[in-house]
Amino acid sequence: EKGTYPHFMLKEIDEQPFVMRKIINEYQTEDSELKLDKNVRQAMKDCDRIYIIAAGTSYHAGLVGKAFIEKLANIPVEVHIASEFSYNMPLLSVKPLFIFISQSGETADSRAVLVRIKEMGHPALTITNVPGSTLSREADYTLNLYAGPEIAVASTKAYTAQIAVLAILAVDTAKAKCLELDFDPMQELAIVANAMEVLTDQKETIEELARDYLSKTRNAFFIGRSTDYYVCMEAALKLKEISYIQAEGFAGGELKHGTIALIEEGTPVIAISTQENVNYSIRGNVQEVVARGANDMVISMKGLEQDTDAFVIPQVHELLTPLVSVVPMQLLAYYAALHRDCDVDKPRNLAKSVTVE
Ligand code: F6R
């Protein structure tokens, strides 16, 4: 039920802090240890390479998950678009583990890969919001997202839940492998939940930005580097699917290799800067597009902000910034769609779960 909300999407955006807290509770024992299926723990310990398979928004969460698993658990990770995997099946390692990320657990493209790798005898873990779903039943192990039903076609709370669970999984594996770690995921996720609340309380500001930058435009670009780039891809997808604005997420460094040719007087360019090591470079990219007439909007993290930034997000652990920077992006897409009279919860040509290949 939507309750007092005009749309499920807005309700689901607002639920994200609660989902973070739910995940913290579900993945923690009474004495504050991580609580994870011991078979999942063993499978993570046993593998020599992880293959993440997903589509759309779940694929974007997978890109962030790769960073967690590689940095914290020291296991190489490849992230693949499910529908592409069969054509370009990579050379598999000796002990691969497949992780399927899927809100619905019913995505046919992902299932096709699952069927194939099970035939080959490889282990599979599904991370899903629907534990009884096809991908969950047919995999060896399941991790639940605990996000509650996601009704709006555009995925929001499932994306942040996927990233949170991937962070917990990475830390759990690091602990199981006795690796050095100075990152307490539960403490950091609690900080994220509070930061999300601060952001969902700033809807008016974001609505104004959406009106000023996106209500009339034909296209928009999102630029970022490192993990900010992954959030840019997700931000562009959100905007495309519900507001029908042609949007693209780009790696800042790639602009000069072609995309900058598209910048005209008034083209909206939204830059995300939450990482200290890329702050300087991404701001350089902003100057390059502004010099060509772009209408820039910089979203930065507290501590890295400049006076001209459109919006500053609260500070969280640098690994977890996607959980927070995506919230204004979801809201931007939502309000852009409203200003353009689009059907937010049921965008044209899209289905909530894509059960055909
Ligand atoms: C975007 C969106 C889709 C899904 C994709 C995968 O907002 O909802 O891109 O993320 O169809 O769906 P799941 O996660 O159910 O496998």
Automatic annotation (TrEMBL):
Keywords, ordered alphabetically: Aminotransferase, Cytoplasm, Glutamine amidotransferase, Repeat, Transferase
Organism: Virgibacillus kapii
Protein name: Glutamine--fructose-6-phosphate aminotransferase [isomerizing]
Described function: Catalyzes the first step in hexosamine metabolism, converting fructose-6P into glucosamine-6P using glutamine as a nitrogen source.
Catalytic function, reaction form: D-fructose 6-phosphate + L-glutamine = D-glucosamine 6-phosphate + L-glutamate
Major place of residence: cytoplasm
Superkingdom of origin organism: Bacteria
Localization per Swiss-Prot or TrEMBL: Cytoplasm
UniProt EC number: 2.6.1.16
Ranges for domain SIS: 40-179, 209-347
UniProt GO molecular function: transaminase activity
Active-site feature positions: K352 (for fru-6p isomerization activity)
Name of encoding gene: glmS
Quaternary structure, from the entry: Homodimer.
